[in-house]
């Protein structure tokens, strides 16, 4: 994957500071033409620089105030099918593959503790899921961020 150049980093930094900025506003801020910014944005998007825009929507505002992390142990040979079945569970916000004693970390949202219990039961009912361990998310101590990484890359450039 080609490295990001100075303009890419400046554009990403401006977007990180104001994720709702328009192409015109970004062009003005960076002293670039609108076409240059649009072309850079298209290239960055094609390279996978942007995560899902859904990440910016709170599950709480949708009526799901409880979030929990389920460390999940699965039969490895069944992982591709388990992944597909987990994706069918609407309360699953994200699933990460892990190394170590657990195979997956599944972030779920629920309306209340009974709903969380039911979601966990549905996940456990997936053939190949051997066990889960649930930890409630009490607070988001550090929200998802990449700005410090961009600063680090700029320092080394």
Topology:
Elements: H1 6-17, H2 23-30, H3 34-46, E1 66-74, H4 79-87, E2 92-97, E3 104-110, H5 113-124, E4 129-136, H6 147-156
Antiparallel strand pairs: 1-3, 1-4, 2-3
Helix pairs in contact: 1-6, 2-3
Provide a descriptive summary of the structure in words.
The protein is an alpha+beta fold and 157 residues long. The protein has helices at residues 6-17, 23-30, 34-46, 79-87, 113-124, 147-156; strands spanning 66-74, 92-97, 104-110, 129-136. The protein has a 4-stranded antiparallel beta sheet. The longest helix is centred in the first third of the chain and has 13 residues, at 34-46. It is elongated. The two termini are 17 Å apart.
Biggest sheet layout: 4 strands, antiparallel
Helix content: 40-55%
Per DSSP, the total helix count is 6
Structural class: alpha+beta
Strand order of the largest sheet: 2-3-1-4
How far apart lie the N and C ends? 17 Å
* Count of extended strands: 4
Q: Compute the gyration radius: what is it? A: 20 Å
Q: What is the string of SSEs from the N terminus onward? A: HHHEHEEHEH
């Amino acid at each position: 994957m080609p490295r990001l150049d100075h303009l890419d980093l400046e554009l990403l930094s401006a977007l990180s500071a104001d994720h709702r900025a328009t192409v015109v506003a970004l062009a003005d801020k960076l002293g670039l033409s609108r076409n240059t910014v649009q072309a850079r944005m298209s290239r960055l998007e094609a390279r996978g620089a942007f995560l899902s825009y859904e990440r910016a929507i709170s599950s709480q505002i949708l009526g799901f105030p409880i979030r929990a992390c389920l460390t999940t142990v699965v039969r490895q040979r069944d992982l591709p099918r388990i992944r597909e079945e987990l994706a069918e569970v609407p309360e699953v916000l994200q699933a990460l593959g892990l190394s170590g004693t657990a195979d997956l970390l599944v972030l779920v949202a629920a309306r209340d503790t009974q709903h969380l219990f039911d979601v966990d039961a549905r996940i456990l009912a997936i053939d190949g899921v051997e066990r889960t361990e649930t930890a409630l998310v009490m607070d988001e101590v550090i929200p998802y961020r990449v700005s410090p990484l961009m600063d680090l890359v700029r320092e080394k450039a």
